[in-house]
Amino acid sequence: MIRPIMKDPDFLTQVSVPATPEDLAVARDLLDTLEAHKEGCVGMAANMIGEAKRIIVFDNEGSYMTMFNPEIVKRSDRYEAEEGCLSLEGTRKAKRYRSVKVRYQNEAFQLRFKTFTGWTAQIIQHEIDHLNGVLI
To answer: What is the pLDDT of residues 34-45, one digit of tens each?
Structure first.
């Protein structure tokens, strides 16, 4: 189900709680909502649809990927980026890393580790910031 985009900064700055298998429907709604906004959006966090759960979805080089409870465990090569967000007006500067290693759970809640670089790494960092209550 496509959900409305949350724009309330008081809600968006709350730290999200861990996701559980009961949140699989939230992940599906998050994917549906991202797909509906694919012209201007490459990633979303669950709080962007009003769910304070640690779930992100994003374009991973042409196909969508879902992560439950993601956490960056390693980062390298810091740079300054300029980003926009469906939940906010305009663009803002953000400190990012060209490479990030992420610990997360897949849809079966199995623990995984994966390193991402470039644009995909930037998207993931933006979405994990959302989970941590950080707005650009």
So the answer is: 999 999 899 999
